[in-house]
Amino acid sequence: MAATLAYFDTAIGAGNQQLKVYTITPDASYPTGGYPITPAQVGLLNITYVDSQNTTGTTSVIWQYNYTTKSLQAYWTGPAISGVLAEVTNTTNLSTFPVRIRVQGF
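RE: above sequence
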């Protein structure tokens, strides 16, 4: 399975970059390394910035975009090991942790 990416809104940002907002509903089997979110999937040629916000009000999962791998990764909150948050383990059910992302780019 894969996460479901649902379009929400578009605006024009600084330097005429497009700002696109999507709601992502994860599936029941999180893949190690995160869910791929490529520029083509969000109607852009290049992603310059991604911001995320949980939509359920939960703070137990933090979502972060990895610009190198072009994927949205999930991390457990709570006590960090050596100051580093732990990525959610492979095959974890995150279907109840939807996230809204704002993608900026050209």
